[in-house]
Every structure is written in C-alpha cells, then in structure tokens.
Amino acid sequence: MCVGVLKAGVASGGVVSTWADKTVEDNNAWERWAVRMADVVNPREKRPVVHLQLHRSGANASDPSDWKPSTFGRYMLVRIPKPESSRSTTEEFKTALRSSMHGDGERGAEHRYAIRPYTIVRRGGNPGMELYIRRYEGGELSPLIHHLRVGDQLEMSGPRGLGLHLDDDSTGVVVGVALGTCVYTYYDIIQYLIAKHEYEESNGQLM
Q1: Is the pLDDT of residue 175 over 70?
Q2: Could you tell me the residue range of the domain that residue 32 belongs to?
Q3: Residues 134 and 51 sit within 8 Å (Cβ to Cβ)
Q4: Whole-angstrom Cα distance, residue 89 to residue 119?
C-alpha cells in the first residue's frame, strides 16, 4: 500500500527529465539493462537482499531537483529466462540467460520467463536505476536475480503504472504512508526534496 501527498515546487523551473519521467503511456517495450553492481546487503540473513545497479543506453543522469514528482511510484517489469529445473546450478542459469540474449525475434515466448514488477529507484545524479530484491526460496524470480553478476544483462519493460499522482508544481508540506516494498518509492521523494531545498537555499528562495 502507498499513499502520498506531495506539495513541493519544481526547483529549477526547467523541463529536464530522465528516462523514468514518462507520464502519458506505459512503455511496453522490453529493453536490455546491464548489471553494473551486484552486492548482497545482508548475506548472513535467512532472506538476504541483493542491491543491483543497472544501466542501459539512454538512461542518462539528471539532478534530482529536475525530476517530476508526478512520476514517483511507477514500476518496471523484470523478466529472466527460467532454467529447466528449479534446482539448476549457477552455470545452467547463466547458459539460459545468455541464450535468451542471443535469440531472434521476440527472444522467446512469455511462458519461458519469470516476470515480476519492481518499483523504480533512480540513482540520484547518476545514470540508470537501482533495485533492492529480497530472496525468497520459494519465489519464481528472486532466486534467479541473486545469480546475477556484474556484466550480466536482464530485460525490463517500463516505466509502467499510475504512480502516486503527486503534484509537480504546488508548494506546501509532504505527507507519506508506505507499507512493505512500497517504501522504496519514497527514496526518490526524499532525494528530490533534499535537492529542492539545497537549490532554493543556494538561490535565496527559502522563506
């Protein structure tokens, strides 16, 4: 569950946006994203979390003060080819991943893939995006994602969804409620508000 009310003016007044700032229609195309970093945050836990940094061509960086709050809360669909067995080794998984990246046409039917939605987390002033994914032993996709290493590629489609319907232009206060993985939506909001405050402070706009 996510509930958000954001009243914060656009800091720079410009029209700069990132790949995630698409407010009209869902992007249904599947595109390849490269793994730039794969780090297990809590390896000793029963259900560890992997932190991925991902990048693709066109996923350029922009300052958080230029983001559009109306796009916060949207998600990406992630798909990874399923290995033949649920007990497949890492090498068998890698073989399936490589074959999907070098196929033809649509690179395989939908039923060959494990597909899940994940909330977009942009990387501040850096290009690309981040994912934080907890591993569930009975899960269809999360165990596969924990096999990913730097240099691997996965396919994602998006941005999708309605987001939080936040206001790009008004001023006031922020009220937010988040439950579960929806908390990552507010990571972008916090980055945006800090950048906005710093911009206004440096330009003498604070009241």
Answers
A1: yes
A2: 2-202
A3: no
A4: 28
148 domain residue, yes or no? yes
The torsion angles phi and psi of 202, rounded to 5 degrees, stand at: -70, -20
The answer to whether residue 207 sits within a structural domain is: no
Amino acid in position 197: H
Q: Residue 154 belongs to a domain with what CATH number? A: 2.40.30.10
Tell me the β-bridge partners of 33: 154
pTM, two decimals, is 0.71
pLDDT computed for residue 141 by the predictor = 87
Report yes or no on 132 lying in a domain: yes
